[in-house]
Amino acid sequence: MYVPEHFALSTEQAAELLSPVAGGDLVSNGPNGLDSTFVPMLYQAGEGLGSMIGHLSRVNPQWRQPGEALFIVNGLDDYVDAEWLSRPEAVSVPTWNYVTVHVHGELIAHDDPQWTLAAVQSISHGRGDDTVDTMPADAVEKLLRSIVGVELRITKLVGKAKMSQNKSPEVIEQVIAGLMEAGNVEAAEWMRQNSLPRAQAKAAMLADLRHQAGTD
Fold this sequence. Notes:
6-stranded antiparallel beta barrel
């Protein structure tokens, strides 16, 4: 994934977007090319960068494709109207803001009922659901016969937030107002807490440098 420096998330920020459970596209390379399945996976911190655990249907051939794989999680996103980006000195065009994390790793299948049950329970608990814990034993056995546990041992986390951080504070405030009016309060708040302070700090630094240049 191409990530300009000003849109890059730290490893810690990327990991936060995976917790506790994230739904995303698990992409692997099979005999007929790339395969992808949308699955929920649980992030587990541990050795190195940790791992993502989940499960696939037994009839899905993807669990038989061990090796290098990618898990893509998409977060906040929305259309950004050209009017929200308008400045007196320049013509603006519309764009799309988004947050995404690409989890690179090694895909490992766990065709072990106990491992898979623990993964299912952990994912459910991560969403505040204990249904699996109270299911009849025969129902649990039937479930486990139909799925296979999978683990993505993470080798690299790449996070990107293209949320107008490279714009001026004035423009960012316009985008925030536009998103609020459009009803995307969550994206607007993300920008208010992350994009705006960063832009304000940059603007203050540039103003200070201009001041120093004018007084030298």
